[in-house]
Design a protein that fits this description.
- The chain is mainly alpha-helical.
- The protein has one domain.
- Helix content is 64%, strand content 0%.
- The protein has helices spanning 7-24, 31-36, 41-50, 55-67.
- Helix 1 (7-24) packs across helix 3 and helix 3 runs antiparallel to helix 4 (55-67).
- The longest helix is centred in the first third of the chain and has 18 residues, at 7-24.
- The protein starts with 6 loop residues before the first helix and ends in a 6-residue tail after the last helix.
Length: 73
Amino acid sequence: MATVPGLPKVNQARQAMVKAVRLAGPEEFIRPFLDRGTQIIPLLTLVLRTEKLTAGTRRWAHVEAGGGENRSQ
């Protein structure tokens, strides 16, 4: 079975983002995400597609990933 180059790093990044989203989402703590700008949108989108999140955290992450009209402050 061949491995995909870079896949372990993507999985590590996804796992770290899952932890960050689960901690930040309920409190709508967004400063670290805003500081990264649009660079994190693909990773947030991956988390939204692959992880089980609470409804509130999912809504928050969806807005932060650019899927909503009103971003939190």
